[in-house]
């Protein structure tokens, strides 16, 4: 039994190692820069979506300001690099820190509302951030966009090639997913889930609901800021549309397809939808006409997303096996008692 348990526990680790090895080898296996470009975009958006997953999937608070915080991280990084001539790592750190501070300020106000009111309030926050970026032309260059963001550089090494950018952003993706894994499997993560299940019950158990919701909200904004800064360092041009509400709904789409409230859902959903969008590029005008019904079918038949459906199916199988084993043990026990009783009678 111990061996079986050990083998079960090591399978996910082996899969993770295999996935990581494949990810590391991809730039060596292909010279297709377009393919690497798509993967880099998937990595960046996955980081932002995994932040949305913490506040919406695990804490049950649907924030629609994620693209706004993505824009704050992107513009803070871009301005520090291009106008303040700050180095890469300090710019990245300040971009994340500032996004977190603004996220905390927005969270203190917006989290006083609940349910649909919170979603609408956060949507308004995202729109306000977009308008500030668009209208503050003296700082952000407005609709003209922010040009000439320098290439990321650590020491004497420049991340000038697509391959080097791939490895840089892959590193932050792995870090973000590891951080989320640690949070979700900690007491803090279980507290988030208890708030999602019932805020009243969580309060009755002595949990500080407001403080934990704020913690989850700030964490989501920090990951959005990180993703935005990485995006600015990779694309090296920014326009106000990076903070548009459209991007927030795209992130929500990635999350719903992959599986809200699951650790791997953001990566699977972002990858699948991005690839589908690319495949439908030749039907640009009819892309959403094709993709819309597919999404409706997915929501109807896989309401918990792809990873959510997989987890539920696995839990059902495990529950079925447990019931079967219990029945077999009961039958064996009954049989043994009958045999023992028969021996005494004899």
From TrEMBL:
Keywords: Cell membrane, Membrane, Transmembrane, Transmembrane helix
Membrane topology: Multi-pass membrane protein
Tagged with keyword Transmembrane: yes
Cell compartments where the protein resides: Cell membrane
Any one cellular-component term (Gene Ontology): plasma membrane
UniProt entry tagged with the keyword Membrane: yes
Single GO MF annotation: branched-chain amino acid transmembrane transporter activity
CDD domains: TM_PBP1_LivM_like
Chain residue ranges for the region called Disordered: 322-346
Pfam families, A to Z: BPD_transp_2
Membrane-spanning ranges: 12-29, 35-55, 62-80, 86-109, 116-133, 166-193, 214-232, 252-276, 288-311
PANTHER family in the cross-refs: HIGH-AFFINITY BRANCHED-CHAIN AMINO ACID TRANSPORT PROTEIN BRAE (PTHR30482:SF10), HIGH-AFFINITY BRANCHED-CHAIN AMINO ACID TRANSPORT SYSTEM PERMEASE (PTHR30482)
Name by which UniProt lists this protein: Branched-chain amino acid ABC transporter permease
Organism: Effusibacillus lacus
């Amino acid at each position: 039994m111990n061996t079986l348990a050990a083998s079960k526990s090591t399978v996910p680790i082996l899969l993770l190692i295999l996935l990581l090895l494949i990810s590391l080898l991809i730039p060596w296996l292909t010279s297709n820069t377009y393919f690497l470009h798509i993967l880099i975009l998937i990595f960046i958006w996955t980081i932002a979506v995994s932040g949305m997953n913490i506040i919406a999937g695990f804490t049950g608070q649907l924030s629609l300001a994620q693209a706004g915080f993505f824009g704050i991280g992107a513009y803070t990084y871009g301005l520090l690099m291009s106008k303040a001539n700050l180095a890469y790592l300090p710019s990245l750190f300040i971009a994340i820190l500032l996004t977190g501070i603004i996220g905390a300020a927005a969270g203190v106000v917006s989290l006083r509302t609940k349910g649909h009111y919170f979603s609408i309030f956060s949507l308004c926050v995202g729109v306000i951030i977009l308008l500030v970026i668009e209208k503050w032309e003296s700082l952000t260059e407005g609709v003209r966009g922010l040009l000439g963001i320098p290439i990321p550089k650590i020491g004497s090494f420049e991340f000038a090639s697509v391959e080097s950018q791939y490895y840089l952003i892959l590193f932050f993706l792995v870090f973000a997913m590891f951080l989320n894994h640690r949070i979700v499997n900690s007491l803090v993560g279980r507290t988030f889930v208890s708030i999602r299940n019932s805020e009243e019950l969580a309060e009755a158990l002595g949990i500080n609901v407001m403080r934990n919701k704020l913690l989850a909200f700030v964490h989501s904004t920090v990951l959005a800021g990180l993703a935005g800064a990485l995006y600015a360092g990779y694309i090296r041009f920014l326009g106000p549309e990076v903070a548009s509400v459209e991007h927030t709904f795209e992130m929500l789409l990635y999350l719903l397809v992959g599986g809200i409230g699951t650790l791997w859902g953001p990566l699977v959903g972002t990858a699948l939808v991005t690839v589908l969008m690319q495949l439908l590029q030749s039907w640009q005008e009819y892309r959403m006409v094709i993709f819309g019904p597919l999404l409706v079918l997915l929501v109807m038949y896989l309401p918990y997303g792809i990873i959510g459906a997989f987890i539920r199916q696995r839990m059902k199988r495990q529950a079925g096996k447990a019931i079967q084993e219990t029945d077999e043990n009961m039958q064996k026990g009954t049989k043994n008692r009958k045999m023992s009783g028969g021996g005494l009678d004899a």
